[in-house]
Amino acid sequence: MRAKIVLDATELKIRNILLTFTKEYARQTGKQLTLRITGGWVRDKLLGRPSHDLDVAIDQATGEEFATALQQWMAAQSDEKVASVHTIARNPEKSKHLETATTKIEGLDVDFVNLRSEVYTVDSRIPKVEFGTPEQDAFRRDATLNALFYNLDKDQVEDFTGKGLDDLEAGILRTPLDPSETFHDDPLRVLRLIRFVAQLNFTLALETERAMTAPSIRDALQTKVSRERVGVELKKLVAGMYAAQGARYITRLGLAPAIFTLPEQYSPITPNWTVLTSMLDTADAVMPLIKFDYDKPHLWLAMLMSGMSHLTTVDNKKKVFPAPLIAVKEGIKLPTQVGNLVTKVLDSAEDLWLLSQQAASSRLETGLLIRRIGAEWPLCVAYSAIKYNNPSSLNGLYDAVHAMGLQDAHLMKPLLDGKQVSKLFPGRAGGPWLKEALDKAIEFQLENPNATAEDLKTVLLE
Predict the structure, then answer these.
(1) Domain match, 131 and 19 both
(2) Are 301 and 309 contacting, i.e. CB atoms less than 8 angstroms apart?
(3) pTM of the prediction?
(4) What Å distances lie between residue 330 and 84, 217, 222, 223, 324, CA to CA?
(5) Looking at the UniProt record for this protein, which Gene Ontology cellular component terms does it annotate, in alphabetical order (predicted)?
(6) Which residues 6+ apart lie within 8 Å of 48 measured at CB?
(7) Could you report the per-residue pLDDT of 379-415, keeping only the tens digit for each?
(8) Where are the strands (E) in 188-288, listed by range?
(9) Is 413 left (phi over 0), alpha (psi -120 to 50) or beta?
């Protein structure tokens, strides 16, 4: 960890612009402002990580007031076009508890907001927000290492919790206040801290982890937090460089049921969450042995949902759906295509493993399975390798698919289209037979990669 924040050339220009303007602002209004960059930028700069997310906290003005005056002042100082100010409205349901003004300075996005205090009620995670002191603003944050401020005027880091710098140095995630209070105020912070584990490879402080195990906290995460926000945090978690660490915390703390929920209009299911524990036990050893590229974020998402494999749920109209699809689409509000992908990964694992155990896989069987899975078949093969703890066989299957030229089998089209096939049987109306004929065409082409359209005509006529 660096002992001091070192600004790059662009950041230095931004600092000079803001400090120069605060003097002009004081002359015009009589308010002597103190500006502080807060949150993740301070943490990442001290860790030597790139960060271009500048959040500036103001002590005596709202973000919109300050940013608007700044934009007008910058426009008067230059003949060049100055970026406009965009105000992001308060949206408590998406964790935006205070109006934020954003603009561009020297090509970087800069957000402005006033220092604040937050007071929560028992039955809501939406706080009453008021102007606050730097100390109040620091202590209402999710972690001590995210409560560090960089004072632009003094050019120094401020640690109002008294623990942020030490925790950053030690790689510990700790809440500024009592963790039970912090998590009851905003249960989403449970998932946020685990997301930071996945991104930074840090560990949770013992008292912080212990508080996360409370049934009331898990219930609050499931019922008080919008599913969109849960999905946002989970998406960042599985994309983290240390997603395995985050997944272990989710398992150890028993959080999966609170994350992957089904709406009330769907019948309940009974996932086997112990499957994830066994997969994590083998993932560390197996993943380095997988010799091909695959989609790691979606692999981790599929592993987190492994306990829902092959489960179905019924809605109030008696329609049956794969449970993982609904858990993704409604439980964490990620796109339907992601839910379909996770379902496909879970459902195809056994078929891929069985195929990998054959002494010599047939072109037809292999090609049809690749077509059923689609473009993400390497991801499915990787998941199967972990689930069955057999990277050697699944690497062999991956190589066999390429050796047979079937890696794009899902894109294969019949050498004759529907109209051409229909002409072979004049006077016969379209119907199920035509689909069967086109399916037969694909099977013939998979078995005979050098076949021509004339060869296919002969087979279909026979």
Answers:
(1) yes
(2) no
(3) 0.89
(4) 36, 21, 13, 13, 10
(5) mitochondrion
(6) 1, 2
(7) 999 999 999 999 999 999 999 999 999 999 999 999 9
(8) 203-204
(9) beta
Domain-ending residue, one of 111, 136, 170:
170
Using an 8 Å Cβ cutoff, are 341 and 322 in contact?
no
Q: How far is CA 445 from CA 60, 404, 455, in A?
A: 73, 13, 10
CB neighbour class for 333 (10 Å; exposed up to 12, middle 13-18, buried from 19): middle
- Asked whether residue 149 falls in the same domain as residue 45, the answer is yes
CATH assignment of the domain containing 232: 1.10.3090.10
C-alpha pair distances (Å), 153 with each of 23, 36, 373: 11, 8, 58
Claim to verify: residue 159 and residue 17 sit in the same structural domain? yes
Which residues on adjacent β-strands are paired with residue 204? 173
Q: Are 208 and 296 part of one and the same domain?
A: no
**354-385 per-position pLDDT tens digit:** 999 997 889 999 999 999 999 999 999 999 99
Q: Are residues 158 and 23 in the same domain?
A: yes
> Per-residue b/e over 232-259, b at no fewer than 16 CB within 10 Å?
bbbbbbbbbebbbbbbbbbbebebbebb
Identify residue 32 by its one-letter amino acid code. Answer: Q
Contact present, 117 and 130 (Cβ < 8 Å): yes
User: Which pair of structure tokens corresponds to residue 304?
Assistant: 């987190």
Q: Could you say which of 257, 285, 320 is where a domain stops? A: 257
Instruction: Determine the pLDDT at residue 462.
Output: 83
Hey, which residues does 117 pair with through a beta bridge? 130
Structure confidence by residue, pLDDT tens digits, 183-229: 998 999 999 999 999 999 999 999 999 999 999 999 999 999 999 99
Domain extent, residue 249, equals 171-257
**Within 13 A of 341's CA, how many CA atoms are on the CB side?**
20
